[in-house]
């Protein structure tokens, strides 16, 4: 069973427990931003207990960001599992719940390229993370992509943007560009340096976007 979280104190504790230890500073926002985003309904926060049970302390967290102006797309902002409980199905349980909750929306996720050198055990192995999403049928969008800065003066982060399919479906080799373009025009393009924004914007002019397997 998965729990939805909106309590400010609870969200601050979850940010400290899952986001701070498991993501580098340039890929995480502040606890207060998470609280505010959840209060407005833009962020949806789910937790899972041990092995998907909420009877004990949470061992996994999923945060999904949505934008009312882009109703057809959602972003899996963070998916994290406690270091000592990984490989027990909690991440898969959370991901399936997110996909069920979103219905027909396209779910995108940002991950490090698989060939990125692992920075620490807490941050996880990029190759293992790519393998996790690949097992769930995700495919990489073949566009130059950078996560926009998460704090003033912060750096954009070169990542892969991947499409995660609903159970029982698959990501096509050619994906309609319009929903992704609308999302990135809201989420990323206004906040990237001009040269990176221009490169990404040019890639989004195609009618369809090519996808490729992860790995």
Walk me through what this model shows.
A hairpin with a 6-residue loop joins strand 3 (60-66) and strand 4 (73-81). The chain starts with a strand and ends with a strand. It is built from six helices and eleven strands. The protein has a single domain (2-213), classed as 3-Layer(aba) Sandwich (Aminopeptidase), CATH 3.40.630. By secondary structure, it is α+β, with helices and mostly antiparallel strands. The strands form two sheets. The protein has a nine-stranded mixed β-sheet, with helices on both faces. The chain has a two-stranded antiparallel ribbon with strand order 7-8. 32% of the residues lie in helices and 25% in strands. The model has no long low-confidence stretch (mean pLDDT 92). The longest helix has 15 residues, at 8-22.
Distance between the termini: 31 Å
The Rg value, from CA coordinates, equals 16 Å
Can you tell me the CATH topology? Aminopeptidase
Biggest sheet strand order reads: 1-2-3-4-5-9-6-11-10
Strand residue percentage = 15-25%
Instruction: List how many beta strands DSSP finds.
Output: 11
Briefly note the structural class of the backbone. alpha+beta
Tell me roughly what share of residues is in helical segments: 25-40%
Order of helices and strands: EHHEEEHEHEEEEEHHE
CATH architecture: 3-Layer(aba) Sandwich
**Mean pLDDT over the residues:** 92
Largest sheet: 9 strands, mixed
What is the name of the CATH class? Alpha Beta
Task: Indicate how many domains the architecture comprises.
Answer: 1
Shape: globular
């Amino acid at each position: 069973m998965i729990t939805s979280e909106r309590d400010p104190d609870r969200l601050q504790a979850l940010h400290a427990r899952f986001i701070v230890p498991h993501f580098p500073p340039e890929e995480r926002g502040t606890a207060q931003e998470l609280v505010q985003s959840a209060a407005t309904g833009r962020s949806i926060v789910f937790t899972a207990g041990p092995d998907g049970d909420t009877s004990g302390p949470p061992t996994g967290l999923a945060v999904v960001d949505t934008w009312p102006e882009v109703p057809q797309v959602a972003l899996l902002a963070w998916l994290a599992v406690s270091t000592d409980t990984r490989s027990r199905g909690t991440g898969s349980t959370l991901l399936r719940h997110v996909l069920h909750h979103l219905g027909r929306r396209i779910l995108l996720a940002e991950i490090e390229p698989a060939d990125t050198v692992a920075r620490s055990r807490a941050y996880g192995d990029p190759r293992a993370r790519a393998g996790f999403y690949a097992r769930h049928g995700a495919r990489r969008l073949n566009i130059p992509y950078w996560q926009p800065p998460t704090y003033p003066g912060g750096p954009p982060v070169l990542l892969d943007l991947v499409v995660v399919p609903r159970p029982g479906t698959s990501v096509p080799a050619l994906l309609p560009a319009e929903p992704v373009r609308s999302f990135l025009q809201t989420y990323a393009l206004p906040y990237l340096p001009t040269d990176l924004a221009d490169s990404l914007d040019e890639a989004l002019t195609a009618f369809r976007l090519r996808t490729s397997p992860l790995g």
